[in-house]
Design brief:
Length: 93
């Protein structure tokens, strides 16, 4: 479970829960097959499909120096009907 960082709770991700789709941020170096294997092994579910996209890092300014945060990857995991994942702990800010 090192590849999965935390679950994402946005309006869209909550709407997707009705379609048995779960959203979470993962390590940017993880592959789709690794994430699928981890989810199926850890939660004991069957994954039908996985969609992913890479989100860019945000710009951050510290005085005159402009920096940026790291980019990250978000996965939308679709499960077979009848399976579900218990809610993961959301990242605290």
């Amino acid at each position: 479970m090192d590849g999965i960082k935390y679950a994402v709770f946005t309006e869209k991700s909550i709407r997707l829960l009705g379609n048995n789709q779960y959203t979470s941020n993962v390590e940017s170096g993880s592959t789709r097959t690794e994430i699928k294997h981890w989810v199926e092994l850890f939660f004991g579910v069957k994954v039908i499909a996985m969609n992913s996209h890479r989100l860019p890092g945000k710009g951050r300014r510290m005085g005159p120096i402009m920096g940026h945060t790291m980019h990250y990857r978000r996965m939308i995991i679709t499960l077979q009907p009848g399976y579900s994942i218990p809610p993961l702990i959301a990242k605290r800010t």
